[in-house]
Amino acid sequence: MDKKVSVKVCLGTTCFVMGSANLQELIEIVPAKYGDKVEVSGVPCLGLCSIDWEFSKAPYVKVDEDVVKEATVEKVLKAIDEKLK
Amino acid sequence: MFIDVDCYQVKKYNQNAYGDYFVSKRYPDEGRLIAVLSDGLGSGIKANILSCMTATMLLRFIENEQISIRKAASIIMNSLPVCKVRHISYSTFSAADCNDEGDVKFVEEGNPEVIWIRNNEVMKPEFEIIKSKTFKNRQMKVTKLKLKLGDRLIFCSDGVTQSGLGGGRLKLGLRRDGLIVLLKDKLAQEPDISSTELAQYIVHQAINIETNRQPKDDISACVLYFREPRESLVFTGPPFHQNKDAEYAQMFANFKGKKAICGGTTANLISRELNRPVTMEKTISIGKLPACSYMEGVDLVTEGVLTLTKALEYLEAGTSNIDNAAGKLVQFLLDSDCINFMVGAKLNQAHYDPALPIEIEIRKTIVKKIANILQDKYLKKVDVQYM
């Protein structure tokens, strides 16, 4: 494995109140499940809520360059699995 | 110069209201500050009402500048009634009207004489004595001072100078001389001590020499400290016109003093314009708020509206030392004297989506509230610029 998968959780205002606060467990689950193949971090803002026409798709998480809309822990883990296939 | 002002008080033992009243107001546009301390006759509620009335009336008289401070003080002195039982006036006062240049007009009636300290030496200002036209034995002292950087004015109620009276070591109480010794010792140890800490120190020392540490009178100490201001800048929200981003980011970079960014988009904007990466902690939220991020040359980077709203809540409630982003922001603000806000007027429509589970206020409104409370309650000098 040469390149790590990067998971970026948006912590902007919209995403945070729409549920990224609940993605805290990713910080523990991901290293436990994937070791150092995946790296999770928060980012101040992905800037997606203001450009997405349907605003209510927050919270957003970026798995490499793919955007996960209305992200939940399950959806993010699924997206990571796709990447690692 | 910045005038660091604060007062610390304790009540007389077994009383439930303060008999001394301190009021202070800053006028940022004029670079002016007025501070008034009044000591009401007796203690408890009665004294509280008397001193509160005297201090607030005096502040009003002085602030509207239609009459001079000496005239304002004489009117109060001549009209304060006399207690039927004790035959002394209902309240005493000290008032300072100062500006950033160090010009101070000081009046006092009945309170212990003000102490002016420069380079840890007590200065001896010349007072003009004005006798009351209506009451014998009543007079006030007026003086004009020119203060320099690092000077302090300390004034207090007689609770300080008479502390320890009658008991133990100090038969005549601490007195002014004793207070001067305390102050000189403390200032020799900590030449840069803040007004808040010095006022607390004076009061605690006074309580310590009281019998059984029970204050026999209301004790208040006020300190005015003229020093270089601690400047800080809070940058929150993207500018309304995107083509101005670079310009404002440069203003942020050039600012001398402590800096904070409140807002995810804002942090990205500054990061992009100044080419400084933003990094985050390995956590997502602390205490229901998004965690802080880091950027080189910036003292604090937080999320925007939620953190500001929480910080306002803490400022209103007077809570400090909270370990989350808002707590850090409060500490950042309280550690500054002059706080500049640069507030971006651009709205993020997504914040106004009714699907959002909580009420998100408009940034401008929150900043305005924070600015007001910092100015009124915490006596900071605040400037808000919209962009």
Structural description of this entry:
The complex is a heterodimer of chains A (85) and B (387). Chain A contains three helices and four strands. With 85 residues, chain A is α+β, with helices and mostly antiparallel strands. Chain A has one domain (7-84): Glutaredoxin. In chain A, a hairpin with a 2-residue loop joins β3 and β4. Chain A starts with a strand and ends with a helix. In chain B, β4 and β5 form a beta hairpin. In chain B, α1 (44-63) packs antiparallel against α2 and α8 (305-317) packs parallel to α10 (363-376). Chain B is built from ten helices and 20 strands. Chain B has two domains: 2-227, PPM-type phosphatase domain (Phosphatase 2c, domain 1); 231-386, no CATH class. Chain B has 387 residues and is of the alpha+beta class. The chains are: A alpha+beta (85), B alpha+beta (387).
Task: Describe the structure concisely for a colleague.
Chain A has 85 residues and is α+β, with helices and mostly antiparallel strands. Helices cover 31% and strands 21% of the residues of chain A.
